């Protein structure tokens, strides 16, 4: 009965590359329906942590639990199917398909053996309708409704990042790991992207872990900050608490 509804728990995770301790005993948890940013200098282990949680790297030791279930060492597709999706710095989309098709395909891709139901035509049609309704809702939340017919390759960089999030949501993801979602995006659009993230949390109950170094933009939108240095979490808490923590100022914000 964990009333606090922790969606993810990371316990004493280690990951080395040769002699380099990229993740050196990391422990933290994420409360459901909260937005957490992960900050830290280049090379502090942020992307490695995302890779370990999403199954792209196996940790050397430690455990990762999603909704109290141990997912340590699971293959990436299995972790994806259980509800954790990650996005990449370079969005992964079907470039020749339009926006709506990108969403519909994402759901199908994650349905596993559901095609077996195809002979039950009526049932299938109902699914199709439900999918389109769901896609329309997601497009609305992402502010992409008016672009539904556009080929993915013709979207702006910011819209591509939004569509990538939409694909994750169509697949049923409830925890989104975003690696620098506003990198290379102008400040106006960067604020829009964070406002959208807040909307997805509020309207759909999505939980976010976001690697982000542009604190000037991100801090106003987030519930929790985790600060890493040299593979360890050196500070965590509210944005105010973390940015005034001397440890963080020294290792990250300091000159
Ligand atoms: N696949 C890999 N092989 C070897 N070293 C790696 C690999 N991935 C990351 N590293 C190293 O681990 C450290 C942490 O990297 P990374 O997690 O990418 O940091 P960040 O995302 O915080 O900038 C760095 O020193 C990086 O060079
Ligand atoms: Mg990185």
Structure write-up:
The protein is an alpha/beta fold. It folds into two domains: 6-83 and 174-253, 3-Layer(aba) Sandwich (Rossmann fold), CATH 3.40.50.300; 94-158, no CATH class. It is 38% helix and 25% strand. The protein has nine helices and ten strands. It has helices at residues 46-53, 76-82, 99-109, 121-141, 157-170, 187-204, 215-218, 239-243, 246-253; strands spanning 6-17, 20-31, 35-39, 61-66, 69-70, 84-87, 175-179, 207-211, 224-229, 232-237. The strands form two sheets. A six-stranded mixed sheet has the order 6-7-8-3-9-10, with helices on both faces. Strand 1 and strand 2 (20-31) form a beta hairpin. The longest helix has 21 residues, at 121-141. The protein is globular and about 50 Å long. Adenosine-5'-diphosphate binds next to strand 2 and helix 1.
Can I get a quick summary?
With 255 residues, the chain is of the alpha/beta class. Helices cover 38% and strands 25% of the residues.
Write the SSE topology:
Layout: E1 6-17, E2 20-31, E3 35-39, H1 46-53, E4 61-66, E5 69-70, H2 76-82, E6 84-87, H3 99-109, H4 121-141, H5 157-170, E7 175-179, H6 187-204, E8 207-211, H7 215-218, E9 224-229, E10 232-237, H8 239-243, H9 246-253
Parallel strand pairs: 3-8, 3-9, 6-7, 7-8
Antiparallel strand pairs: 1-2, 1-4, 4-5, 9-10
Bound molecules: adenosine-5'-diphosphate and magnesium ion (MG).
